[in-house]
Amino acid sequence: MNELWLSSELLVGGCLFIVVLVLSSVFIRRRVIARGKPLTVCALREPDDGRWRFGLVRYGATGLEWFTLTGISVRPARRWERSLLQFGAGRTLEAGERPEILIGGATKVDCRYRDQHFEIALAQAPYTALRSWLEASPPGRNFYVA
């Protein structure tokens, strides 16, 4: 009977350890990706793929970076330069589109980067912040404009 008790305690302890390890790695990865810059949940859909992929988007002085939501990599899966990125008008998603699962009240935006076209979906507040960031002058540019 004691052996069964010990086995079950080890099994439960091992499962708890794995859960804590996974949750802490997700938290640490998110903190490393953010690096003090704005970070929000964003869905990306590329024309050749057709499905929404969830991730994290971070924007800084020079560009916009998109990271996959899952995984261990702290490198961006996509990177777009700020000066070459163009946003279309934001539209609300139709009922039943997948990004509504993680992003309530999402806004879909057609984007263009050089000759590439893609769509992103963001919640309303991050969409407004991202549009303001894109339309504002990057630091160090147009310094002497009156």
Structure characterization notes:
- There is one protein chain.
- With 146 residues, the chain is an alpha+beta fold.
- It has two domains: 1-34; 38-135, Pleckstrin-homology domain (PH domain)/Phosphotyrosine-binding domain (PTB) (PH-domain like), CATH 2.30.29.30.
- It has helices at 2-34, 124-135, and strands at 39-45, 53-59, 63-68, 78-81, 85-92, 107-113, 116-122.
- A seven-stranded antiparallel sheet has the order 4-3-2-1-7-6-5, covered by helices on one side.
- The N and C termini lie far apart (83 Å).
Write the topology of this structure.
Layout (H helix, E strand, L loop, with lengths): L1 H33 L4 E7 L7 E7 L3 E6 L9 E4 L3 E8 L14 E7 L2 E7 L1 H12 L11
Antiparallel strand pairs: 1-2, 1-7, 2-3, 3-4, 5-6, 6-7
Essential attributes:
alpha+beta; PH-domain like; elongated; 2 domains; seven-stranded antiparallel beta sheet; 2 helices; 146 residues
- CATH architecture group name of the largest domain: Roll
**CATH class type of the largest domain:** Mainly Beta
Structurally, the number of domains stands at 2
The DSSP helix count reads 2
Instruction: Sketch the major β-sheet.
Output: 7 strands, antiparallel
The averaged pLDDT comes out at 85
- What would you call the structural class? alpha+beta
How helix-rich are the residues, as a percent range? 25-40%
The CATH topology of the largest domain turns out to be PH-domain like
CATH homologous superfamily assignment of the largest domain = Pleckstrin-homology domain (PH domain)/Phosphotyrosine-binding domain (PTB)
Radius of gyration: 20 Å
How many runs of DSSP E, i.e. beta strands? 7
